[in-house]
Amino acid sequence: MPQDLPKVSQPTKEHKAIICIWADLTMTHMDTIMNCTSMEEIQSFIAESFGLADWHDNYRSAIVLDLFYYTLQFAIDHHFSKEQTSAFFSIVKKTHEVCTETPFDNLEICYNYFKELILCHAVKRPPWSVNIFSPEQVHLVTEYVLTTYFKHYKLYKYAFTPLVKLDLSISYDGVPLTPEPVDVCEETQEFETEAIKESEDVQGECVEVEESAKPATEEENAVERELRQIVTDQLSVEIQKLKLSISDQIQSNDEELQKKLSAIDGKSSQTKVGGRASSKSKKK
Question: Which residues make Cβ contacts (< 8 Å) with residue 8, sequence separation at least 6?
Answer without folding.
Answer: none
